[in-house]
Amino acid sequence: MAVQDEFLEQVKDALAHLYDYSYLDDHPLALRYWPDAAQGGPSRAQRLHRFLLESIEGLNPPTATPKDTSRARGYLLLAYRYVEERPLADILRELGTSRRQFFREQRKAIAMLAASLQETLPPPAGSPTEPDDLLATEAGRVLAEAAVTPPSAAVDPAEIVQGVLKIIGPLADERGVTLECHLDQPLPSIQGNRTLLRQVFLNALSNLITRAGTQRVRLRIHSQQRNVTIELAAEPGTPGGRPSLGTLDPHTPDLDPLRRLVEIVGGQWHGLEVRPAGCVCRFDLPADRQQVLLVIEDNEAVIRAFQRYLSGTHYQVVGATTGAEALRMAHEVQPTAITLDIMMPTQDGWEILQALKDDPATRHIPVVICSVLEDPELTRSLGAAAYLRKPVTQADLLAALGRLPGTP
Fold first, then answer.
1. Of 55, 96, 100, nearest to 79 (Cα)?
2. Which residues of the chain have pLDDT under 70?
3. pTM of the full structure
4. Number of Cβ within a 10 Å radius of residue 145
5. Residue partners of 327: CB distance under 8 A and separation at least 6
6. Which residues pair with 180 in a beta bridge?
7. 3-state helix, strand and coil shares in percent for the chain, rounded to the nearest 5
8. Structural domains in the chain?
9. Which of 2, 108, 249, 407 lies most in the core, judged by the most C-beta atoms within 10 Å?
């Protein structure tokens, strides 16, 4: 078997096990490109899974395109077959094709996907790299790993701070800097990768401790509605502890790496304020607060797909397959958000949306319309918060939920 054919077969096999992480972790593609699983970072399976999803989405035409174009049909076929895991009969009906034609188109779609993967996958482990490219390659790898790390861990901020203070303590002693820490109680957990969160705190503290003139660094963590706010203040002084205004370095340090780290873990950077009496660095980190997403969809395969998409996040997915069930669950569960299909039997999505918005008990819940029918103007006029074109990818869903008011 030629190398190209072997790669194509490996892509087909990986697609067939897209959500089987134990299988993907030892898959030939994962072992070839990521032989060493990162400690505290994404596993080989997670990286391969994400690259497959992103490459499928890369086939999605940027604008509305008729289904009969090769690229659009290839995207829809792969999304329905492997991402949403729809039954074959449903796909044949949706695409208006025969079983024989479907498998011909599937082979072409997988070939397009394999070509895209070959262009975007990192060089195989052990490939020669030019010395001048080493730094850029390493930086890109670190950022890529951080970007695909699923927010699966709820991290205790007190545990993070305790461990970081042990590491940073000798540096503070060497510089004659006093460290003070205040954590509001109770504090919610922080959502994110523990290793990266530790780097955020270490980088922030190290920057302030080593700032010329710093004699005291105060760390305060307090809870907001949706975030955990971090505030670090560096204060000048003399070795005897008496304040000595104006001794702090007036220049603004380069905190761009810290800002980037904060953004990678899903936080919000508020910047550094420098004054003669000291400087204050502030940023928010996402709190781990369980949210409920009600998926109103008559196709249970889509509900299962959304559950997989949000597995390991702060969302719990519950499904409703009829309008009556949806309205009842919206009352009982009071979900954080709702996704709503339009093509529903008996009672269509527009009727369900109107019922939700007419009811004082549910009108506050943001609704995301998910449909093959594109009508964003009608969506907005009826009070929906957002519109997503089907098939909905994991990235689309996460982005839409992240933009909703009142959601983390």
1. 55
2. 1-4, 36-42, 61-68, 120-153, 225, 237-254, 289-290, 312, 406-408
3. 0.44
4. 19
5. 352, 355, 356, 359, 362
6. 218
7. 45, 20, 35
8. 3-148 (no CATH), 154-286 (3.30.565.10), 291-403 (3.40.50.2300)
9. 407
Residue labelled with tokens 């706010």: 229
Q: What is the pLDDT of residue 296?
A: 94
pLDDT for the residue 230 = 94
Q: Of 209, 207, 213, which is closest to residue 275 (Cα–Cα)?
A: 213
Q: How far is CA 65 from the centre of its chain?
A: 27
CA atoms within a 13 Å half-sphere pointing along the CA-CB vector of 128 = 1
pLDDT in tens, 221-239: 988 767 899 999 998 864 4
For tokens 């289904």, name the residue: 67
Please name the amino acid found at residue 204. A
Residue type at 301 in one-letter notation: A
Query: What single letter denotes the amino acid at residue 325?
Result: E
Question: How far apart (Å, rounded) are the C-alpha atoms in residues 13 and 165?
Answer: 47
- Phi–psi pair at 139, nearest 5 degrees: -65, -45
